[in-house]
Amino acid sequence: MVRAGFWHPLEGGRIQCDLCPRHCQLAEGQRGFCFVRANEQNQMVLTTYGRSSGFCIDPVEKKPLHHYLPGTPILSFGTAGCNLACSFCQNWDISKARQMDRLAAFAAPEAVAQAAAHSGCRSVAYTYNEPIIFLEYAVDVAKACRARGVQSVAVTAGYIDPEPAALFFGAMDAANVDLKAFSESFYYRLTGGHLQPVLEVLEYLKRETSVWIELTTLLIPGENDSTAELERLTQWVVERLGPEVPLHFSAFHPDWKMTDKPRTPLETVQRARQIALANGVRYAYTGNVVDPEGSITHCHHCGARLIERIGYEIKAWRLDAEGCCHACKSPCAGRFESRPGTWGNRRAPIRIGV
Fold first, then answer.
1. Best exposed site among 16, 130, 239, 282 by fewest CB in 10 Å?
2. Which of these, 347, 348, 305, 344, lies nearest to 328 by C-alpha position?
3. Per residue in 179-205, pLDDT tens?
4. How far is CA 157 from CA 131, 179, 180, 296, 308, in A?
5. Structural domain boundaries of the chain?
6. 247-251 and 284-287 strand pairing
7. Cα(151)–Cα(174) distance, rounded to whole angstroms?
8. What is the pLDDT of residues 263-314, one digit of tens each?
């Protein structure tokens, strides 16, 4: 447990959290909505600093990131809790956890960075639950990683206030932001949050940082998969973020408190991808489905197949050392090295900490 930032005192002994748009007001001993930030002796503390729900080496494509160090291993970890209340949460056993004893032993930031470097990981992912709520721990890990030449990736819903966003994303090299829908009604009913703060964070990331961003939208039948909504979402991305920001459309499966909805049909994610491409998105992908075409990176200029994938494994690579198309020499947006990694589909749990 460490003292946390982004709060201010209120009258009557309460304090207000200024980390995210919820602005929880806490009496002595109370925890915020996220369950990990608490009022202890009239100060905000982070109760999960240094404690993880587990560490695993994944392919970076699993985050998903298709234009950031393709083929490389990434050390992934999270803690517990979340500042949204998604009824369709696909990681509910971690993000909705209220039992702190499920967390692993203490892992200092330097220990995480050392493990990543020694394992050959090019980056560390703050994922599984919402990393914004363990901002202090994530930032300290990211600093330790940078000292060792290891990069940092946030997998986040982007529900954060402007001042902490500057600190949090200032420590990150890349982010996959979960744009859950493109309607306020969806956010309010199914996540307990609001759409506008997420859009503002996305514009901030694009305009004012060097963070590489990709977006993911989980398509839920009857909730956020209409053609009209997908038209609005993809048009907004092109107009406000630019055509080079990759979009991932993934298929929903019944989970947590939303078991009354069917799985998302393959045709739905394929349709979303086609809408994105028709509206000018250069790189659109499908996920959680078997769809070989939906995992290919095409040249936006000549249409050549630049990166072909099966699952998380790269099967063909047609970018030159500068990240340009072999056929027409047009640049492909992203953070590429001269050759892709060879980690493939492997998943390797590791133990860190004492």
1. 239
2. 305
3. 999 999 999 999 999 999 999 999 999
4. 9, 7, 8, 25, 28
5. 2-46, 54-350
6. parallel
7. 8
8. 999 999 999 999 999 999 999 999 999 999 999 999 999 999 999 999 999 9
